[in-house]
Amino acid sequence: MSMNPDRVAEDIVLALRRIMRSMDIASRQLISKYGITTPQLICLQHMLEQGPMTTGMLAQAVSLSPATVTGILDRMERRGLLTRERRPEDKRRVLVAITDAGRAAAEAAPSYLAERLTHALERLPEDDRGEIQRVILYLADLADMRNGIK
Asked: What pTM value is reported for the model?
């Protein structure tokens, strides 16, 4: 049986929309219960795991534009969740570091969608989990506008 590539593409786009909707709902829950957005949580969690880094390094690590990350960092800095420090050896280079308040926020705020996925994936054989991860990462690469797809 042959599958129409147009139909497959439409089904994939609809499935991705469902995923995006779930992410939006989880983000709204996070904001209402913990006062933190999903992108803020992702940035804090990454800094918690990796330590201080430049804005550019963080942007690349969390797959957001440097301008978007700068806005996120501005808001979190005002709330005392992180600090920025210019490097004495190179004033153009600014390191961003998580504060104790940021650490507490990152540890307290659950990632609802990640938790749901973790529980669902635990029930699958390891090979299936690996295949799902491989396919999702492949789709993300296909959809990534930075890779020349317009």
From this structure: 0.76
